[in-house]
Amino acid sequence: MSHPAPELADLGNGFSVFWSDYNIRFLVEYLTRQTQGIVAEFTVLDGDKTLCEGQRINLQTDKIRVAKKVHEYDGRLKLSDWTRLIDSTAVHVLRRYREGEPPHRLNADTPVEDLSYQVNPLVHPRKVTILYGDGGLGKSSLALFIGMLVATGASVAGLGAVRGRVLFLDYEDTLDVHARRRRAIAECHPTLKAAELIYQAHHEPIWNILPTLMRLVQLEHIEFIILDSLAAATCGDASAEAATKAFRALRMLNRGALVLAHIPKTNEQQQEAGIFGSVFYKNFARSTWELKKEQEVGADESVLGLFNRKSNLSRLHAPIGLRVRQNSSNTAMSYESCDLSRTVELAKGLPVASRILDFLEKDGNLYAAKDIAEELELSLGTVKTTLSRHNKLKWNSMGEGRETKWCVLNR
Question: pTM of this prediction?
Answer without folding.
Answer: 0.78
